[in-house]
Amino acid sequence: METKLPAPDGAAADGTILDGAALVARIRQWGRELGFDAVGVGGVDLTDAEPGLAAWLEAGFHGDMDYMARHGMKRARAAELLPGSIRVISVRIGYWPDAAPALQVLADGERAYVSRYALGRDYHKLVRNRLQKLADRISAEVAHQYRVFTDSAPILEVEHASRKGLGWRGKHTLLLDRAAGSWFFLGEILTDLPLPVDAPVESHCGRCTACIDACPTGAIVAPYQVDARRCISYLTIELHGAIPEELRPLLGNRIYGCDDCQL
Questions:
Q1: Side-chain-facing half-sphere of 224: CA atoms under 13 Å
Q2: Residue 93: which CATH number?
Q3: Cα separation of 58 and 39, whole Å?
Q4: Domain around 194
Q5: pLDDT tens, residue by residue, 145-201
Q6: What residues are labeled active site?
Q7: Residue 115, exposed/middle/buried by CB under 10 A (0-12, 13-18, 19+)?
Q8: Quick one: DSSP state of residue 128?
Q9: Is residue 256 pLDDT above 50, yes or no?
Q10: Which residues, 6 or more positions from 110, have their beta carbon under 8 angstroms from its beta carbon?
Q11: Number of domains the chain is built from
């Protein structure tokens, strides 16, 4: 039986020698042409995120989202989704937060509030299609094994994006950018290409607790800790049973999701 030797550093799996920095620069350019606001590259290993994920699940903060418990630590082990993968290309793309003034809608009891992300096209299709086009552009340059994702597999998207320089994790657990806030979708391409990696950016939250203070139901129980069982987005989208009576008055006119911690 023939044994396939690993590719040398700086080479694709087929042995092609890469100019990694030049390829990443082209990937960023292609990403911009496809409408992505930022593209970052990093490793697949999130082993050090597993204790926090395990503690969150153990506390029951995932509520009735049983699939999260079933996936368990798989979310931190992206390489299991594509054996042989060594890099994650993370992207972010802004959505339509100004479709209708959020605070104006929230203040109008005659109107129903729908989370800004849901006012446009289905982001799963939009982002995935663009990710596929980006992966195709890369494939035209160099052969590689890959998979594309956007909220479509057990993967810690925010953790990957923050480690690849696309922003930092806010205390509301979402990815933050100084200019764009957290109004964007994330997506990933898993690849076996040995691309150079990006550095994370500095957090700018400091002592600010604005997102924590803004939560109508107190779902952000501590910095970087969200109890989904109290989160309006969970209650109006993910929860299949009845909303707890004590939380109902706090929903206001929010019928699908909530953006208060982002406003």
A1: 14
A2: 3.40.109
A3: 33
A4: 20-203
A5: 999 999 999 999 999 999 999 999 999 999 999 999 999 999 999 999 999 999 999
A6: 151
A7: buried
A8: H
A9: yes
A10: none
A11: 1
Residues 6+ apart with CB under 8 A from 104: none
Are 208 and 200 contacting, i.e. CB atoms less than 8 angstroms apart? Answer: no
Angstrom distances, CA of residue 42 to CA of 16, 33, 62 = 20, 21, 27
Nearest to 53 by CA among 199, 137, 154: 154
Instruction: Read off the amino acid at residue 230.
Output: R
pTM of the model: 0.91
Alpha-carbon span 125 to 121, nearest angstrom: 8
Q: Is residue 216 part of a domain?
A: no
Percent of residues in the chain assigned helix, strand, coil, to nearest 5 = 40, 15, 45
Question: Within a domain: residue 109?
Answer: yes
| CB of 13 closer than 8 Å to CB of 86 | no
In a domain, 209, yes or no: no
Q: Give the amino acid at 91.
A: V
Instruction: Report the alpha-carbon distance of residue 251 to residue 263 in Å, rounded.
Output: 16
User: 247 in a domain, yes or no?
Assistant: no
Q: How far apart are CA 148 and CA 86, in angstroms?
A: 14
